[in-house]
Amino acid sequence: MRKSILALIGLAASAGAAVLIYRNWRHIVRHPLKLSPATYAVGVMRNIPIEVEHGLTLAADHYYPKAAGRFPTILVRSPYGRELRGGPIGLVYGFVLRRIAERGYHVIAQDTRGRYESDGKFDPFADEVWDGRITLDWIKRQPWFEATLGVGMTGPSYLGYTQWAAAIEPARTPHLKAIMPIMTSSQFFTVIHADGSFALDTVLHWMQITFLAGQPERKRQFITPAEEDRRLANLFDQLPVQDVDQLLLGERVDFYQDALNHPDRTGPRWRSIDLSDRVGKVEAAAHLLTGWHDFMLRELLADYQRLAAAGRNPHLTIGPWYHADARYLVEAVRTGLTWFDVHLKGQREKLRDKPVRLFVMGTDEWRDFEAWPPKALSLRYYLREERLLSIEPPTNGERPDRYRYDPADPTPNLGGPLINLPQGAVRDNRELEARRDVLTYTTSPLDRDLEVIGPVRLELFAQSTLAHTDFFGRLCDVQPAGPSLNVCDGLIRVKPEPQVFQPEHNGCTRSCGENKLHVEIDLWATAYCFKRGHRLRLIISSGAHPRWLRNLGTGEPIGTARQMVPADQIILHDLTHPSALILPVSLSSPAEH
User: Fold this and answer.
1) N or C: which end of the chain has fewer CB within 10 A?
2) For the domain bounded by 376-586, which CATH number is listed?
C-alpha cells in the first residue's frame, strides 16, 4: 500500500494523477503514512485577501476543522500555487494541508507576492521577511486564532525560506512557536554559486518550474520531468550563458541576470536575502528535514549547526531522498504532525528521545543520535599507483596520473543532488568512469563493513596548465557484481588568487610551490555503510556539467564568456604530496581495512 501511494504522488507531474490522489485517497492514506485517524471534517474558505501593503493583497485559502474548539494554526507560504490553481504541485500541497487540518489545525495556504492570485511583482526572496511578518499579524487578529496554542510553519524548498524569513525576528512574531524547514536554506548564494562555480542545472530547472507558471498567461501549463529535460537539453551548452533565460522563457529574468553578474556574496543583492547570520536568533522550535541527495543538504546542515551553537536545541532528520523525491513527503507529513502536536498542542510525550535521526544507506536503517555530526574517527584512504586507494601512505617515486579536460566536451554530471532526477539520484557510474577525462582509484574488497557518517573530504595535490580550472571528486560504492554507485561528491573552482576560501563549504585551494596546488574539496556529508566484499572508489575529474557550469578555462565573467581552453591536469600522490580521501568512520565501525 505504501508503494502505491508513493507511486501516485510521484506521478503528480500529471494533473490527472494529482487529482486522483487529492479526491480518492483521503481515507486510506493514513495507514501507510502511519497517521492518527482523521478527527474532523474540513471546510475551506478560498481566496481570502490579506493586505501586506496599502492596496496590495496576498491570496490565501483557510482550511479549518468543522467543529467548535481551540486549534493551533499552520501557515504555509508558497510561490507554487494553491490546489488546482497551482497545478500538480499545488494539488499535492493541498492534499497534505487537508490531512493536517483533519487532525485539528487551522491551515493558511498563501500565494507569495506576485504569484498566482497574489498582487505585486515576484522578486524571489526579496519580500518574504515583511510579507511573512504581516501575514502572521493578520492571523493573530482572526477570531478563530488561539494565542495560547500559537502558529507553526512548514514546507520544502522556497517554502522553507519563507519560514526562516518569518522566524528571524522573534520579538515581532512571538506567536510563531514551531517551524519545520524542509530541504531548504536561509541563504541562496552558496546554492546558486556552488563551490565558486554556478549551479546551472538547478537554476534553469527552478526557473522553468517557477517562471513558466504563476503568471496569468502561463498558469495552466503542466510540465513533466521528462519534458523539462527535453526543453533544457539544448540550453545547457549555450554560450553565452547570459542568453539562456531568453531562449528558455522568451524574456530576460532579472533574478537570473543578477545571479550571473554578481558572483560576490557581499554584494547588496545577496546580502539583502541572506538570513543566515540571524538563524541563531530564531526562538521557534525548529525541526529540519532533508535528504542525503538534496542539493541544499550542506546549507541545511549549516543552519542546523547555527541553531545548535546558539543553544536552540533543533531536531534534524535526514533520509535517502533527493529534492523532488516523492518519498520524503511520507516522512515530512508524519514527522511534521508530531512536531506540531508537541510544540503547539503540548503533547510532549510524542517527542523522540534523541534529536538527530539519520537514515544509514547501505544497511537501509534509521539511527538516532544526540547531535550532528556524530563523533567519528578520521580515516585516510591514500591515492596510490595503479589507481589504488589504500590506508597505507604513498612512498617516494610514485608516478602521478594525468588527464585532459576539454570544456568543448565537458565531463558530464551523472545523478547526485539535483532538482529533477527522473532516473534517481543514485546511478551506476561505470559509463562515466570509462571517459578519458576521468580518473578512478579503488580499494581492494572490504573484509568487514565500514560505516561512514559525517562530512567527507578530499585532499588533492595537483597541477594544471591553467590558472582557472575545476577539480571534482566523487565517492562510490562498488558492488561485487560490478555497479559503481555514487554516494557523495563535490567540486571546487580554482582561481589564480593565493587562497580561495568558502566558509559555507569548508573548501579551499592554495599554492604549495613549483606551480603545484593543494586542493581541499568538501564531498558533502553522508551516512553510508559499505558492506563486506564491496569496494570504495574515488572518481576524480574536472567537471560535472551542467550541475556545475563547465569551466571554460579563461577566467572571463561566466555570463559573457565564449572562449574555451582545455586544461591538462596532473594528480600527484607520493610521500610529499599525499593526496587522500578522508572519511568520518563511525565509532562502532572497525577502521582497519
Assistant:
1) N
2) 2.60.120.260
